[in-house]
Every structure is written in structure tokens, then in C-alpha cells.
Amino acid sequence: MLRLLVASAHVPGATGSGLGLHVSARFRGVPRGTRVVPEERSSTWNETLAWPLGVRPLSSTDTITLHLRHWGQPAPRGDLGATTVSLEPLVADPELLMSLSDVPLLDTREQPTGCTITLRCSYVPRGTAGDTPVPLQVQVPPRAVSPGPLHHPGKPPEGKKEDFQVRVKVIEGRQLQGNDIKPVVTVLIGQHRFRTRIRVGNNPYYNEVFSQEFQGTPAQLVAEPIRIRVLDSRAPRAKATIGVFQLDVGTVYRAPGHGLSGKWLSLQHPERPDTGSRGYLRVSLLVLRAGEPAPEQEELAGDGDIEANLLRPPPCATTLQLRVYRAEDLPQAEPPQQGVPKAGDKRAFLAASVRVTFAGRTLCTQVVAPNPNPVWNEVFFFPLRLPPISDEIQLDILGGSRSTKVLASTTLHLSHISSAGAELEEGTPGFLPCFGPTFLPFYGPRPDATKTLSTAYRGRVLLELSTLMEPSDGCHQGTIAREDIAQEQCHLPRHQFGLCGVFYSATMVPPGHQLLRFELSLGHSGDTSDVTCKPAPSVTPYACPLFDGHRYHYLPWHGDKPVVAVTSSWEDVGHRWDVLNLLGGLCRRLERNVKEMRDTCGDTRGDIGRRLLRELAGDCRQVLAQLKGQPTPTPLDTHLRATRLHLLQRVMAVAKRPPKVGWDTLLEVAEGWLGRVTALAVEPQVGVPDAVLWLLQGTQRVACARVPAPDIVFSRSGPGASGRLCGRIHTLFLEGPGDVGAQVRLRLWLGRVSESGDLVRHLEGTLRVYSETYENQTKVLGKWGARGLLGRPSFSDGAGQARPPRHLIQPPRGWRWEGPWSVEPQRRLLPDTETNVGQVLEEVYENQSRRLRGQWGPATPASTDASGLEVPPKEEVACPQGWHVTDGWRVDMTGDVDEAGWEYGVSETPGSPPPTWHPTERSTHTHRRRRWLRTRQRDPSTQGQEQDVSTLLQQHSPEAWEYGTLWGCHFHPQPRVGDMWRRRRWQRQMVPKEPPEVAPIFLLEEPPCPQTPPEEPPPGSKGAASPVPVPPHLAAARTPHPLHLPEAHLLPAPLLHLPGAAAAPPPLQNHRSQSSRVLPPTLDPLWDQTLLFQRVPLYGDPREVRDDPPPVVVEIFDQDKGGAGGALGRSVCTPDVSLNVGHRQPPRLRRYPLGGPGGEAGELLAAFELLHDAEHLPEEEELVPPLRLRVLDTRGFGYRPPVGQTCLRGLARFGTHPHVQGRTRSPGTPKTDSATRWGRIARLLPLLTIQVGTGKGSPGPPPPLHPAPRQHTEEEEEEEGDWWSKFYAAVGDKTKSRRGTKRDRLKVYSCELEAVPEFEGLQDFCQTFPLYQLGGHPTPEEDPVGEFKGLFCLYPLPEDPEVPPPPRFFQDLPPSQPQKCLVRVYIVRAFNLSPRDRNGLCDPYVRVSLGKTTLGQRDHYVPNTLEPTFGRLFEVTGTIPLEKDLRVSLMDHDLLPPDQEIGTTTIDLENRLLSRFRAHCGLPTRYRCSGPGGWRDQVPPSRALELFTRSRGLPAPEFSAEGTAVTCGDQTFLLSHFERSPLGHRPPRDSRERLALHVLHACHLVPEHLETRTLYNSTQPGLEQGKVQMWVDIFPVSLGPPGPPVDITPRKPQRYELRCVVWNTRDVDLADVNVTGQRMSDIYVTGWMDGLEEQRQKTDVHYRSLDGSGAFNWRFLFSFEYLVAEQRCVLPCKDHFWSLHETVRKVPPKLILQVWDNDKFSADDFLGVLELELTHLPRPSQHPQSCTSTALGTPPKWPWQGVRVPSPLSLFHQRRVRGWWPCTLEEDGKRRLSGKLELSLELLTAKEAEERPAGKGREDPNMYPMLPAPLRPESSFLWLQAPLRTLHYGLWHRYRRRFCLGLAALLLLALLLAFVYAAPGYLAMKLVDPLQGFSHQLSSQP
């Protein structure tokens, strides 16, 4: 195998806005191509192309040619250069990795273009490990997903386009690999890229949110990718990637709540995924769908839960191999014009290729030459991770040389061709995706059909899919070996199949004058427009659509039903069809029994359960018997057979014994069985295409329907193995341009021709085969004859196409004539316009012309029709049989005529009628006419349609001629004046010569050409060029006597949600239709009408009609005045069939959904029944009609236009007892005991008293109890925490709350206050009903035009008029005058806001609007955040209900107005003020007169209790003198019941108020709370834009001034100073080598606080450390702001120097220390890092020997790390700590110990730091503590400053002994040299004069 890695290319002239670049490579004539990337100067692919070499090894002459091209441009203009690379080095050394960088590209003239390319090439010889594939049959562990149903499990349902929002929150990273890195995270959501800010260190903290909106279907959304990549901003681009993690939106959408919160992503290297994890990134992912609420914000789990929240990439990486062999039956380029294309003529076909798309990757085969059966023999490779993220493999057949037109498409689901083995408790091994080799049919549009139809068969492709247990090596596609091509042929034996169809009725066909016929095809067999297939009797005879008398049209098939047949050759897949049909029958029976069990109870459920088990065991036994003998030609057959056997054996074993617990438990078990069996009842390897039924209108295909082949196939294995529709009469709805193109009732049969002997028995009638032809004549000079046809054929078919004369037609081979040719009238082609019409208006025009003297006289002709054709005079017009005339002839006086009914005109030519007519006579007019009318009606004794047909046949002449005025027009039985053409129908029956063993209809074949030459047509005839084809043979089933079901009862009842003005439904049964009466304009029509269909003929076995009754189509129309009306909705209903009237059950009214042009159109309440007896009618049930509310605007002159309306359904909720005193109960409130006056309060308070006394908990909200006696109330109130302490205590964050909050609690609701179930939507007093515009039913996207508030009570009135009526309701109502109120709006915080700025953030501020008052300033915004904390109070005064809607909007502050709206929420203040749950001001848990939690309501609790009892109609409470007891009715409550502490410890002055507050809390009123409201934006309706937490207090001015407001000002961060003293270092890595070879380091330490890199500080340098030790005594000072409540550092800073606002970031307090080696002439060397989080500080070691890397104390337990470390400490609590901490360094992906630091950390507040000043380093003031100069060895100095000292310490100290010995040796050597030098002369002198010295001595003496 040869692999080529295309790395990158350099394009100097790239502008960044081109079409994109790609590289194409060619090796040995086989092309490969890269993907298209944006045009940049440095474009990167990093894509591998591979070529399998097969048996031919690489040779030294092989080369690779590469082209760099623009995408989408032709070759000469789009080329940027090419180059040829020789592969000779790879042949010499196969292990060589040939890398070529910046290879220049040349143009066509061999000149450099300036572009270069970088690539790598490798060679894997055949037979080596890299070239050996893994066998297909391999056992793998089960996947995590099961096969599932037909649609992908978990996939959202498909529908229209919706709005979605995908949010990705990047929180923090941990253990990112790399040294001294600055990580940045890029997030790709779909095609949109985002990036975080750059951070420093291996554990960065981001807390940034990115969001992207999508508009599309859920199926499109789930395929969008999410790619998260972590990069090192310091590293070069090629080496910047730290790790990536990729998933799709579907993974997030299928998660609970459509989100993944706080998950850790295990990052992998994109090119080396087997190297393990390269770090962890914590993210939260969420998918929001319009109309669905966002999940509640969850608190992130601690670091200890990383293992449970870890997301790893799919554990098993495999390769999906898809082989594309060849195709069959591909479509032609265009319909042929004449004849059959010659052999070898390929111009009629298209060049084709196959495109495969899977998991975002698209591959395409080569484009082959035009051929109906192209051959590719190519293989595709797709990387596949298990479990697979994508389920669909999309395959398309492309046509054209450029492969731009999609001819056909299909989809292959991985869930259908693989199994996880988790269907059963015991489980199966499962199997990987596999398929074939088998053909896969493709479907698509065809040119001769309506554009909206795309269900035509367009060919099939031979495919094979397998899975290789090895990751993809970069090879994307290749060629299939020859031995594999030869092997696949053995799987494809073929047999002859026959398809037969019998048509019984066709209605709802399109109207018009064109003839209609149906075509049945299987593949291309039977397609009349495909000239490459042999003709077959696959079409029904031509027929004219007839009007049924009301609205629809049908085809006149009467006694003889047309039969069509098609024969074709396909592979034998009967073994798959048998099992599939048996499993389908098992599922249908099991589903029916489960439904019946679900709808029943008691003993009946046991009977159904026994039947369920009995039938299930029998079905399993039958399927198992079939499976045991099933052949398995493909791997998928083997796997499916094993899985089905295992499942059914398990189910049958359980079904043989009844459940031990009870029949109720069987329902859940049976539903589980149904789901598992349904998941396996699929067969993707059905290579036979679906049968397609077309409706042809002339030459245009206007409607079609597809029937799966397994549903109609016949099997010798038994009825259960046959298709559910095989040989059964059923109804098909053909899809047309609108909704339904036709409704056909037919019978279909498919099977082997050799097994079709019993087909006639299935037809239930006599099969008659005949041939027909039409004899045509024209009138010439008053005589009829074949001459003068003017190019028209003398013999033709029903549509006028040329056919041979009858004496030249020969029967097919094996057939003979049965009787002579006979003339028979053709009823199906005679369009009688009076059929099914009860009244006809006849007209005759009387014509006159002006004489010479100006007088008027009869014209020629004297009587005509409206078009001017001559007709008999009105006196000679006879009334047809079965009709009677209701009135005589009269002149039509309507229209533009004079007083006598005449209209006048001038003829242009003599004898021709005038083109225009005028009502006024002038002297120039030459003609005039007037219209005579007569009405006739059908006799009541007429027998219906059969009588119309017989009457029509009686009108034929004895020779059965049909007459017409023009060729191609409609014919009539009687001759008329002006008829120029006539024809008659000849037919002759055929029978087989010998009794056949198969069905005779499948033996009809095209006979040879007639030996006698055809009749010579006249000159110029269109049929004279060549012999015309022999006409097709028609087959008809002479059906037995039809089954008459005399009546069908339709009871349409109230229609709901129906848009329109007036409604009239015409139900359609068979080809009969009726219409109901037209109602006045309404949206809830109530017909209360029964429609009777008399004598409905239904063909077939009555039991089949009972099992599969014909559907009833009901359509609703808006009947305009004088018009036909527009369609509003349609419903297909199934009637109840009663064959035995004695055991008939009256039908029940059911609701049927109505589908309209725009989707759901409402509901229909009706009952349908088919009966034998006409005396039994269904009884109508009592119905409660909906209540319609309409608001009108009263204007002057009585004009009252409607403003809005609403419809109330389900009025039972407003029902009440007529004798209940007082007002009615609120909707949704449970019914109370009317005998007690206290109602709910009287029930709750005694129960609460008992529970408090016994110390038991309450099921409802617990009463506020004071746990301990207090002796110093005022002092404790002063020590109470602020409101934020109470808030954090309510949300469960105890670390942020202060002491004292346990006594005062706050209720935080995660939704709006109206959405809390216990408060009933705050509509207990009155309900709110939205009003919508008239003319349509409300949709989720439609906004209401207003609101209606009110309440309804429904109660029965006494039937006896003497009985007094019940008391009136709604007597005790509050005053209706508007109230002026003070509204306090507390805005606490917002979160999950949608970004509005380009940086992924927004600058939110609050705007509050009430009426015309708007509060909120633009300057009070929180910059650059998505989770702002406002803590603001707004006070506004308004008049309720005139100003009832409070709008709270969050706006995004921009530099220039207007500002964008983030989201808005609206609060109905009227409901809160009037609600008896006291929602205008929440009740606090404690009563205090002062302090942060002081009473803020206008009235004290005692007064509030009096007002509450008055509103409930209860007596006022009576308090004792001490205020420790209160009496409410007959109940007395003591303060001791609520407070356990003695009274002496509490101030007596507030006992009365405390007791009243306890009683109010016991009534379940609204407590002091904080509600979470969702924000919405009008530009994206239904899509959440975030949430805001707030509450509202409403104070009526009439009750006095309220208490002081609550202070919710946000907490301010405190300034701290961190003092870090670096004392010493130990065991630091030695990075340098000195001149003497010693390892050493010049050590210094840098440090900064995370997020405050600009405050980076460094120590001085400890030079020449030879053992890694260093002494510094250096102080770092870091000042920062810290928010104690959130344990975060607050860092306000600007992202860029041009930024207008500071971004406030909150990061954990983290100290980062790094150890470096100082270098003068190169970059410093990094030696180690230490990161210390001050809130989770690892405990230091007191000695350097005990300091190890495990002592670092990192909080999380990573998967490889299970060492227990001491618990960390918080520096904010301990304030001071000293010891040794380890430094670490990363090498080879692992961290090791690289040194130790001795530090002292001290944390001081700003005030303490001011009182105890200290300087940086050792600067003044050098105190707290005083840092002396470090005691460093004398060798620690800079060598440039003292070179002699460098020699002293570098040479002398180490080599001084050697220096001394060397010096001594040198002196000895000098003496020796001196001796050697002086010794010869001295010796010579001594030898010459030995006494010279002595004599000299003597001479010197005196």
C-alpha cells in the first residue's frame, strides 16, 4: 500500500476569499483528492491518500503527479501548479519516510508558479503488518446502543424547521500537558468558531460561554458537530495542539434535559489518539429548543467526582468499509422520442457516480461512461467509533459528467445492520455493522412526473459493508480486488417473479377532459415510458373521470374490473421475506393484545392476558421453526438469525407460564417484549424494489404510491409468511401535487411465477383476457368512411394512438382466440356529464339574422349551443328516460340582454357567428340570439348509477358508434349536427391453448410482428414510416355479485380549532360522497347530522371488509358565497362494520385529527358505521359544546368590529354543586367538604397542631419553629447576616452564608411564581384567557392580541319550574375601582444569558416598565458578563388594573444607542393583587420590627389574618389579651403549639403578631421568596434567552405606607495582600554544564497570582548551584481583591487596549511559582512549576527529604492516581504557613519531580498590610519578617563580573593538587635540563685541565 500525506501548501497570492483549494493526486492512473480548505497563504490539510497496490509491487519508475487547484473552476484556469514526485527512494528503502518540504509547483510551460507544497510519502509492501486487513468475522464486546425501531433511537422527531440554540460553557482545565504553556480553547459549533481568552499554566480557569443559533429540523441539528480544541498560544502552529475532543449535537440533545453539566472531557491528540489523555477540560453543554423550558442550573460537582463526570472518546476505533460494485436499471437522460435506442448507443443514458456521506465525511466514486448498468468496483473507508455517533449512511446516485445532479437517493441505518447484544437480560455477543453483498434500491424524482413526487424507482446498486477492527490509516477509498468481485456473483441467483393487481374502485381522481389510467410497475418492469423493457399488460384501460354529484370524480369501473400484471427477474430473498412477515404478524397481534389489556381492567384483563400468552407462544413457535431452516448467504443474515433465535426462545419460554405476581405486571413485560421484537422486525437486505402505482393523466404522471414488496409477497410457507396485504383488498392513497392524488381500492399479489397457480383463487372472480382496437371514420361529403382521415390512423387505441387493424392482430404465443371479433360499447370512455346529477339545466340558443329590408328572420343554423354549434330546435329536444321536466322553456332574462332577452352582434364572415354580443340593437348588427332554458330532474325511482349506465348503453346505435366533433375530443353515443368523427370498439377474447401450470395472466408476451403488411395509411400519415406496435392485451376480472352494505352512518360532531368562516364536510365512501349543511361563520361548527349512504357496493369477502374496511374521507371546506369553497382540513376515518345486525353495538363518537395545508387543522368528532339493516341507527351521546368568548369594539352607528376571541374546551373543570354557598372553587382546586365553613384551613390547622406537638414532620411546607430560647433578642438581631447570607443559605451554599440565617429562611423557586403548582397559577380569583385574532386557530408562534379575565361556574338547573333556582354565585366580589399601588421590584441576579457582543459576552442592565413609566439607566450596566449580579431595587407607582403588566427587560449596553434587547419577562400584577394566596407580599418566617429582616408589609400579621379570613368568608379571629391564643371559628390555637421555647424568654409585645404569622403560614400562603423567571426575545419566540431571579412587592396606597425596603446591594470584594517568601530550593534540575564539565544551574524563581500576570515578580539569581540548592530570602508581594462569599478573586481588566470596559473575571485564588535557569546568550531554561490554590492549599512538608510529588495534594483523583494525600487547608483561615512544596516538570507526557521550594505564605487584609508594611525582595521596610542576605557559597557569582575569581573557584579549588605537583615536576624538569645543558662543558673542561681550578686557586694566594 502506498500512502501520501498532503501536509500543506503555500500560495503567495491568496486573498482569503477564494473558492477554496484542494490537491488532486494520481498514481498509476488512479486519482485521489483531498478535501477543500479555505484559500489562505498557508493552507493546511494533513490528509492521507492511499492506493492499494495489490499483487503489483512498487517499481522504480512509478511516480505521483500532484495538482493544486481552485475548487469549482475548469482545469486550465483553476490550476495553481503541478509537480511529479519520483518514488524510486521508497523502492530502495521501503522503511524510508520520504519527506519533501516546499516542493515548487510548475505551470504548463514548466515555469515556477510561486506556489509550493509539503508532503510525506511511505510504502508498505504487500504481506507486511500494515498491509494485512483484519478478518470480518470477529467477536467484539457489545455496543452501548441497541438496534432500536425503524427510526434512530433518541433522535428527535422530524418536522418543520424550528429554532435551536447550542451553548458551550468552558469552565476550567486540569493537567494540560506542556511546560510554561498559555492555553487557549477553540470551540467549533457547526460551522461557527469561537475562542476563549488566553490563560497561563497547566490548570487554567476560563468560565466563558459560547452560543450559536440554528434554524432547521431536529434531524438536521443532531448531525452538527461540536469540536473543542485546546491550543498552546506560545507554540508554533504545527505543534500548538494540546488535545481535542469531538462530539455531535445529537449526543447532547439525547442526554437528560438536553444537556451535559460540568463534564470533564478527556483530551486526545488528533493524530496520535493512542498516546492517552493529554489533559482534562471541564465544560457544560446545552441544547435549547424553542418552546421547551431550559433545565435548572445545577451546582457543579466537586473535584472528587471527576471519575463519575468524565467523558472519554469512544473506546473502540474501527473502520467502516463500504464496497460499491455496480448498478442496474439507471434512468435515461431524457425520455426517448422515437423507437428504441440502438445497441451500443449510450447517448440516452447519463454518466453516473455514487456519493456516500457518513459522519460528516463525503466520498464519491469515479464517473463512468454513460451506461444503464455501470461498474465501479471501488471501496470506501470511513473511521467509525463505537458506539457510533451518526446512524445514517446517505447514498446518492449522481448523473452527468460533473456529477452535480442527484438522480436518486437512499439511506442505510447502522441500527438496522448492527446489534449491541443488550436486547435481553442474558444478552447476546452482538455484531458489528455489516451488509450484503446485495442490491440496494434507490428512489428519486423522474422528469415525466409532477415535481413534488420523488418516490419513483431509479435503479439499484450492489453494495457490501463490513467493519474492520483497526483504526483508519488515512486511506479513504480504493479499488476492489478481482477475487472479491468474482466471489460476490455467487450470492445473486435470480428467479422470475410476477406482480398482479386487480382494481376495484378509484375515486378522488383529478378532474379534467384528459383520459386517466393506472400503471403498476416493479422496478422498470411495467414502466410504459421505458422503451428498454418489454411491453407488459401493466396499465389499466383509459377511462374518463366522472363527477359523483357533489365534489369528487371517479373512474367508471362497473362490473368488469381491470387487471394488470408484470413479470420481472430478481434475486430470491424469500427466506428473508418469510421471517420478516412472521415477525410482523407477531408484533401486530402482540400490539393489539397489549392495547386491549391497557384499556381494560379486572377479570377481563386476565382473559386478554391468557390470550396474549397463548398467541405469543404460538407465534414464537412458528417463527422459530422458520428460522431454524433459514439459509444465511450473507454475514448479516447469520447475525440476525442468531439474535432472533435467542430473543424468541427467551420470549417463548416466559410466555409458556403465566405470571406469578398478577396480570397487571404482564402489561409492562409485554410492552418490553413488543419493543424488542419490533427492533428485530426489520430487513435491510431486501434487494427487490417496492411496487409503484402511478396515476397517468395523458402522458403526465400526477400521483403515485409505493407498496413494500414484503407486504404483498406470497409464500408457500403459509399465510403467516405471506405479506399482510397479499391477495387482500385494501385501500391506497396516492400522493399527488397537493395532498391526496387518488384513492384506489385494489388487490395486489407478488410471487414467483412458478408458484402462481392459485392466483385466480385469490382474485375471487372470473379472469377474462381480451384484445381491443378502435375503428375510426370521418365524414366526407356527408358520408362516413376511412378516407379523409387527414393523417389519423384508421385503427387506434382508446387514446387515439395508431394500432394495426383487427384482422392483423395475432394472439401471443401459447394463446388462441375464443370467438370472433365483436363490437361492444365502451362505458369507461363515455363521459356522461349527467351521471350522478339530480338536476340538469338545458339550454338552446335561438338565432336570427337581418333580412334585406331590415327585418329579423331565422338564421342558418337556427338553433345552436353556446359555442355556435348546431343543435336540434328546442321543440325537438326530448327528455331522457328516467327524467322529467319540471318547467317549460323560458327565455333567460339575466345578463346583458334587452327586454326580450336578445343580444346582438356583427359577423366577420358570412355564415359565421359574431365574435362579441351587445345588449343594444344597432343598424350595423347582422345577427341576434337569445337563450332558452328548461329544467329537468331525475325520477325518484331511478336505480342509481347502474341505471345511468344502462340508459347510456341504450342510446348507442346498433353498430355501437361513438361520435365526436373533433379528433381527440370526447365522444357521445348519439350523432349530432356537426359531428365529423366517429369510432367503435372491437374486442376479442383470448384463452390459453393448453391449461397452464401458472397464472395465465403472466404468460402474456409480445407476439412477433404480423406477417401480413399493415394497412397502407394515406400519404402524409404519421404511422406510415414503420409497422405500429401490437396493442397491449387487456385483462378484466368478472367479479362475483358485490356485497351491498346498505348504509353508512356518519355523525359529524363539533369541529375543534378549525380555521375558516363557514364549514361543510363532504364524507366520501367508495365513489359516493355527500355534503352536510352549511353552517354560519364559526370556528366550532356543530352539525348534529346523520348522512346515509344507500346501497354502497363493496367487492370481496365480507370478512375481509370487516378486517380491513374501506376508509371514509372527510374534508372540511370554507363555503364562500357563490363559490366552491376552500379546503380547510381532511381526515381519514375507519368505520365500524356490523355484519350481524343482531349483535351490533352502536358506534362511539371518536376524535379524528384534521390535517390542513399548513399542518394540524383541528379535530373532528364523529362516528362511522357500515350496516346491513337500514332501521338501526346509532344513538348520539350527550355532548358539551365548547364556549366561545369574543370581544367586540363598540363604535359609532352600531359598528362593533371583533377585537379577539378564544375558545374554552373541557368545561367540566368549571362545574360545581348548585347549593354550595359563596363563590365557587377555583379551577384545579380539589373539592372541599361543603359542611365545614373553614374548608381547607379548618383541615390543615388541627393536623398541623398535632404534628408540631408530637414533633413529627408535616407533609406540606413545615411551620417556622424557633429552635432555641433567646435571652438577648436585640443583640442577636444586630448580629444577623445580610440578605445575601439568607439567599446563599436558601440555595444550599453554606460557605457563603453568615451566622444567624437559620432562623430566617428564604424560599427560592426555580420557576415563575405563577408556575408553582400549589399556587394554582395565581388565578384562584379569576382566570386569564388569551385572545387571538379571528380567522384561524392559535398556533404556538402566534402572539395573542389581548387577554380576557373571568371565571365561570357550570351547574344544572332544576327541571321542575316550581323548584326555586339555586343561589347565585360571585356575590362577594372585591371593588372594581382601580387601585393605585406602589410596586417594588427587586432584581437580584441573572444567569445563562444569551451573548450579544462579538466577544461572546454582553453588557446587561435592567429596564423596568409599568404603563408609561420606565425605570433603569443605561449607565448602570455590568460589563462583559453573562451572569450579572445586579442587586437593584426599583420603585414605581401604577394604577391596577389599568397598568397591570410589569415588564422587566434586560438590555445590552452598546456604545451608541439603540441597545439590543436580551430578553423580557412580563408579570401580571392584577393576579398577584387579587389572589387569595396573598402573592402581593411574601410572608417572612420571622416577625421583627427592625433590622435587616424587618417587617415590610403595610399591615401587621394580625391585621393580615383578619383580611384573609374576610376574603374567605370566615369569621374574624379573636385573640386573647396576652396574644398567646387565637380563636378561629370553633378552633383555638396557642402560641405554644408553634414555638417550643418558654414564653419568658420572648418579648411579650410581639406575641400576638408572631401567633398571627404562624397561622398565616399554616394556610399555605406565598412565603418570602425569590422567583426565577425566564427571559424571551420577540425576535426568537419560544427560545429562552436566560433567567433572572427577582421578586415583586405590591402595596395598595389605600392601606398606608409600607415598611422599609430590603437592602440587596451586592457584596463588595475585600482587598488582600499575599506575602510569599522564597527561602531556599533543593534538588533543582541542573540544566547547564560549565567549562570544567560540571552540571550546574543559575537558579531564580518567578511568581504571580493567576490572572495577574502583569504582577509577575522574580528573585535574584543564585549562580553556579552545583547540587540544585539555592538560597534567596526573597519576598513576593501580591495585592488582589477577593470575594469571600464566592471564594474567587475579582480581577477587573481590559481584554485589549482598545476595549472600552473592564471585564470582571472571577478566578480561584492561585499562586503560580516557576523555577528557571538563567542564561545570558540564550533563552532561559524552564526547570519546574508549582501551582498553589489558596483555598485548597496542600499541606507542606517540614523537611525537604519528606517532600515528594505525592505531597502536592492535588484535590482530584485522576484515573491513574489513587494515592491518598493529606487534607488541604485554606490560607484564608490559617493565614500563615511555611514548609517545603515540590516542583514538577512534564517529560514524555508525564510529570516528574524537578525540585523543592521552601516557602512561607502569609495572607493579610488591606488594613493589616498597612499596619505591617513590608517591601518587595529585601527592600525597605524589610520587616515582618526581616529577611537577611542569603548565605550563598563563595562560588555563587557572575563570571563576567570577576573573571579572576572565576579562575580561582573554577580551577584552583578543584585542581590545586594537580597544579602543585605540576609545578614541582616542572622545577625538577628545569634542573634536569640545566644539568644536561651544563654537564658536557663542565666535564670537558675537567678533562682538559683537571688542575685548572687548583692552579687558579694557588695563583690567587699572595
Question: How do the helices and strands line up, and which of them pair or pack?
Answer:
Elements: E1 2-10, E2 21-27, E3 30-33, E4 42-51, E5 63-70, H1 75-78, E6 79-86, H2 88-92, E7 98-106, E8 112-123, E9 162-174, E10 183-189, E11 192-195, E12 205-216, H3 218-221, E13 225-232, E14 241-248, H4 249-253, E15 259-266, E16 280-289, E17 310-311, E18 316-328, E19 352-358, E20 361-364, E21 375-386, E22 392-399, E23 405-413, E24 435-444, E25 456-468, E26 477-479, H5 482-488, E27 494-507, E28 516-522, E29 546-547, E30 553-554, E31 560-571, H6 574-599, H7 603-628, H8 635-655, H9 663-680, E32 691-697, E33 700-707, H10 709-712, E34 729-735, E35 740-752, H11 759-763, E36 766-780, E37 783-785, E38 795-796, E39 815-823, E40 839-850, E41 856-864, E42 883-885, E43 890-891, E44 902-905, E45 927-938, H12 945-954, E46 962-964, E47 981-992, E48 1034-1038, E49 1043-1045, E50 1047-1050, E51 1055-1056, E52 1067-1069, E53 1072-1073, E54 1091-1092, E55 1096-1098, H13 1102-1107, E56 1112-1118, E57 1126-1133, E58 1136-1137, E59 1150-1156, E60 1159-1166, E61 1168-1171, E62 1187-1192, E63 1202-1208, H14 1240-1254, H15 1273-1279, H16 1283-1290, E64 1307-1308, ...
Parallel strand pairs: 15-17, 58-61, 64-76
Antiparallel strand pairs: 1-4, 1-8, 2-3, 2-5, 5-6, 7-8, 9-12, 9-16, 10-11, 10-13, 13-14, 15-16, 18-21, 18-25, 19-20, 19-22, 21-26, 22-23, 24-25, 27-31, 27-35, 28-32, 29-30, 31-48, 32-33, 34-35, 36-37, 36-38, 36-47, 36-48, 39-47, 40-41, 40-45, 42-45, 43-45, 44-45, 46-47, 49-55, 50-54, 50-61, ...
